[in-house]
Amino acid sequence: MDNIFSYSGEGDCYSVSLRSDFGAVFLVNGVFSEGAAAFSYPKGEALYITVLPLEAQLLSYTVKIIADVALCNTDLVVAIKHGDNIVIKLRPRYNYVYNTKITKTRNAFRLDNPFVPFASAVDNVEKGALAVHAPLSTPERLFRAIKQQSFATAKTCCTESLLATLDQKALADFFSDYTDIIANDFANNDNSNAANDLQNDNVNKTYFLIDTTGKATQFLFEIKNGLIDNIVEI
């Protein structure tokens, strides 16, 4: 773990992991980071993160965070504190974010569901508007498919045994109260399996599901032969 700040005592700092669903690099208190490795910073001090997207159609922005509390641009960041670990997810900023009225443009997304673009935006998004993005794990693909109401795709993420107990409505209802999914990097890195990469679809994975109030609930996605076999709250 990189320590980009000076601090004294192991218990005086948080371990932080940065995530985004789009290609980006970051400035963390002025220090360049690709977000791939966790880092530590002193408790009680402010963390300034500037997001620099690797996609020309996305805009850069800066957030100020103390512990797991974002103090600006709060719609663009989710911070989850679990013990001394903090997972921070940065969301994409589109040109429309600060408009008072949303119009249908080829780059516009609905505010009520950031996973569902306006119909006029679908082609642009799928063919290049978000060409630079982080690859999705199986739980993330499932979540996105359900939010896009693409249940045929959602079924390809699940084992036959799980689908035998859950129909389309049950899947939609299970995720209906949640607006985002964020990997718990620290729990996944503690996995005893040597392949701890979230893109490895042969190991169980732990994720936070974020509800409409911003509350995070932790779930274990049990993986069998690359597919989700069970989802358990932990």
Summarize this entry quickly.
18% of the residues lie in helices and 34% in strands. It is of the alpha+beta class. Strand 9 (77-82) and strand 10 form a beta hairpin.
- Point out poorly predicted stretches: 1-9, 97-113, 116-132, 191-197
Mean pLDDT, to the nearest integer, reads: 78
The major beta sheet can be summarized as: 5 strands, mixed
What is the β-strand count? 14
Q: Radius of gyration from the CA trace?
A: 18 Å
Computed structural class: alpha+beta
Tell me the domain tally.
Answer: 2
- Name the overall outline: globular
Number of helices: 6
Element-level helix/strand string: EEEEEEEEEEHHHHHEHEEE
Question: Strand-residue fraction?
Answer: 25-35%
Main sheet: which strands, in order across?
Answer: 1-5-2-10-9
Residue share in helix: 10-25%
Give the terminus-to-terminus CA distance.
Answer: 26 Å
Describe the structure in your own words:
By secondary structure, the chain is of the alpha+beta class. It has two domains: 2-90, no CATH class; 138-233, no CATH class. It is 18% helix and 34% strand. It is built from six helices and 14 strands. It has helices at residues 122-129, 138-147, 151-155, 160-165, 168-175, 185-189, and strands spanning 2-3, 13-20, 24-28, 31-33, 39-42, 46-53, 61-66, 69-70, 77-82, 85-90, 178-183, 205-211, 216-224, 227-233. The strands form three sheets. A five-stranded mixed β-sheet has the order 1-5-2-10-9, with no helix packed on it. β13 and β14 form a beta hairpin. The chain is globular. The two termini are 26 Å apart. The relative contact order is 0.12.
